[in-house]
Design brief:
Length: 185
C-alpha cells in the first residue's frame, strides 16, 4: 500500500511539473512576442532600423555614410537647432552658444549623430565613420566609451540635459533640446 501511495504521489508531482513547464514555455513565448512587437513599434515611431544581419547592417551603414558624404556640400555650417550646435566649419560644439571642449574622436561621433539627427546611428555606422580602414578598427566597445564621455560633457555644459538617447539593441539618437527643455525639431 505505501508503494502505491508513493507511485500515485510521484505521478501527481510529474503532472504538476509538466503543467508548470508548459506555463513557463507559454510565458516565454508571450515575452518574446511582446519584445518583437515593441521592436516593431520602436522602429515605426523612431525610424530605427529593423533586425538585420551583419552584412545588411554594414551595407546600411555604408549607404548612410555615402549619402552623408555626397550631400556634404549642401549641409549647413551648423547642425542642430536648439541648445546644441555642431559647427562643421570650425569643428566646434556649442551649448547655449558656449563652446565645449571635446576630443577629435568625440567630435566625429557627435558629428555623425548630428547628421543623422532623430535617426538611429548604429555602432557599425560609428565605427565606419571613425575608422576608415578595416584593419584600423579597435574593439567595438570603444564607441560606448566615446558616448559615455560625450554624455558627461554635454550634461555638465547644459546643467543636466540629456542629448544622446540609447535605443536598446540598435544604437543612439541625438535629440536636440530647446531652452525650455523640450525636444527641438
Amino acid at each position: 500500500m505505501p508503494s502505491e501511495s508513493l507511485s500515485a504521489r510521484l505521478a501527481e508531482l510529474e503532472s504538476i511539473l509538466d503543467r508548470a513547464k508548459r506555463r513557463f514555455e507559454e510565458g516565454l513565448r508571450i515575452v518574446e512576442e511582446a519584445h518583437e512587437t515593441f521592436g516593431d513599434l520602436q522602429q515605426a515611431l523612431l525610424g530605427s532600423p529593423g533586425v538585420m544581419s551583419a552584412e545588411e547592417s554594414d551595407e546600411a551603414a555604408s549607404r548612410l555614410l555615402s549619402s552623408l558624404k555626397a550631400s556634404g556640400a549642401d549641409m549647413p555650417a551648423t547642425l542642430c537647432g536648439g541648445r546644441l550646435a555642431v559647427d562643421t566649419t570650425q569643428r566646434l560644439i556649442r551649448i547655449d552658444t558656449h563652446p565645449i571642449g571635446i576630443t577629435e574622436m568625440e567630435y566625429r561621433v557627435l558629428e555623425l549623430l548630428a547628421f543623422a539627427r532623430n535617426n538611429v546611428v548604429t555602432r557599425t555606422m560609428l565605427l565606419k565613420h571613425l575608422y576608415r580602414r578595416a584593419d584600423d578598427q579597435p574593439q567595438p566597445k570603444i564607441i560606448d566609451v566615446f558616448i559615455s564621455k560625450l554624455r558627461k560633457k554635454l550634461r555638465m555644459a547644459s546643467n543636466g540635459a540629456e542629448f544622446i538617447e540609447t535605443i536598446p539593441q540598435r544604437g543612439w539618437i541625438l535629440r536636440d533640446i530647446d531652452a525650455d527643455g523640450n525636444a527641438a525639431s
